[in-house]
Amino acid sequence: MRILLLILLTLLLGTVTAQTYMIGYRSSIFIDAARGNRSVNTALYYPANSSGDGVPIANGTAQFPVIVFGHGFVMPYSAYRWLADSLVQYGYILAFPTTEGSLSPNHSDFGKDIAFLCQRITALTDSTASFLFGRVMNKSAAGGHSMGGGASFLAMLNNTSINALFNFAAAETNPSAKSAAFSVQKPALIFAGTSDCIVPDSNQLRMYNNIPYTCKTYIDINNGLHCHFGNNDFTCVLGQISSGCNNSTINSSVVFNKIQSLLLPFLDYYLKGICTRGTDFENTYNNITGVNKQRICTVDPFGCSPTGIIDLAFDKEIKIMPDPISLQEQVKIQSKNSWIKSLWVADAGGRVLYKETGLLTHTVILKNVFTQKGLFIITVMSNDKKAAVRKLIVN
After folding, report:
1. How far apart are CA 62 and CA 134, in angstroms?
2. Strand 136-144 and strand 93-97: pairing?
3. How does DSSP assign 304-329, residue by residue?
4. Low-confidence stretches of the chain (pLDDT beneath 50)
5. How many angstroms separate the CA atoms of 300 and 302, rounded?
6. How many other C-beta atoms can be found within 10 angstroms of the C-beta atom of residue 339?
7. b/e for 119-133, b at 16 or more Cβ within 10 A?
8. How many angstroms separate the most distant Cα atoms in the chain?
9. Which of 36, 49, 57, 182 has a 20 to 30 Å separation from 172 between CA atoms?
10. Are 370 and 380 a contacting pair, CB within 8 Å?
């Protein structure tokens, strides 16, 4: 008997919702005590029931992931209001640090500001004094444009709990964003423009190539200019004019549409855990035109588990030994007859801790996977797409 079901059920899958929100705004100052009480001035956009400054967060109990986005060199955060409009309505909190806006910015500090805000704003869900109390999901992404794009790579060095990285026309920084890319061990979505003469696309391609994580995507928009990503901000355009590269056959709206078509499912998948959005991302990537593109996704430990068919006969075949287990103990997963093709291990909160695909075996040994106590879900899929789901207790 077969039961058609999403393998992870409600426990592991996010809830897909069509609800959209209005956009609230607050200007905030966050203090980083670890850096001598550094003030990190921040423009904060969040889901609300009515648009405006200082309005309450949207009614209900829904929690929202955090995105922190770094601005370009001497560019105001208002140049990226289009990004806030694109994401906040779908249930994201978007923070723009307004620091390092001078003619001599400190790239290291800017990267640390992005990293700090990812941590600080997610932590506000536990602060009864905050208007975000109980409403922030413990998921975050770092992003940025130009200088801010380079700084987003630096942020990944300073906060390993950040869940995903994306950026637009990222520029080299000091310390080096290209070198920092070698340490990125999270999913990444990198955008560039083929007509960018401020930070040519060869820079972003090198950063992309340096990322070691095994699931990453590079999108180079045909005829895209550097300032398209910043809604043709006046300061940015002056730089393009002086460099003789302010002409393009496309406009910012074309660039925004291509970004939105990929960025939203990317974030929904990795931050909200909506597994079906991974398929949406793949379909959009496969069908998008007007870009040069590259994608590698061999193993994705931070991705969702698959959908499939729970087969009771296959489920009976699967043996997990021992069960329960102790911390750091290895686990043997065995199928009597069917071939095991892939398996996923997730914690009780739905976070995928381990993933292995492309197998063709009857036995899998898991070592150094269970490093904390609690309940875990093991999903095993056969080569003919039958699936089994088991709970495992780690004492």
Report:
1. 9
2. unpaired
3. PPPPEEEEHHHHHHEEEESSSB-TT-
4. 1-18, 306-308
5. 5
6. 12
7. bbbbebbeeeebbbe
8. 70
9. 36
10. no
End-to-end CA distance of the chain: 33
Domain 308-394 sits in CATH at: 2.60.40.1930
Q: What is the CATH number of domain 13-297?
A: 3.40.50.1820
Extended beta strands in 211-329, E state: 215-221, 291-297, 308-311, 318-321
Residue 107 structure tokens: 């790239």
Query: What pLDDT score does 111 carry?
Result: 98
Q: Which two tokens stand for residue 345?
A: 């291990």
For 290-343, how does the pLDDT look when each residue is reduced to its tens digit (9 = 90+)?
999 999 997 787 876 544 456 667 778 899 999 889 888 899 999 988 899 888
Contacts of 320 (CB under 8 A, 6+ apart): 331, 332, 333, 334, 378, 390, 392
Q: How many CA atoms lie within 13 A of 299 on its CB side?
A: 15
> Reading across the β-sheet that carries 2-5, which strands appear in turn?
2-5, 308-311, 386-394, 374-382, 340-347, 352-356
Q: Where along the chain do its domains lie?
A: 13-297, 308-394
Residue 8 confidence (pLDDT): 41
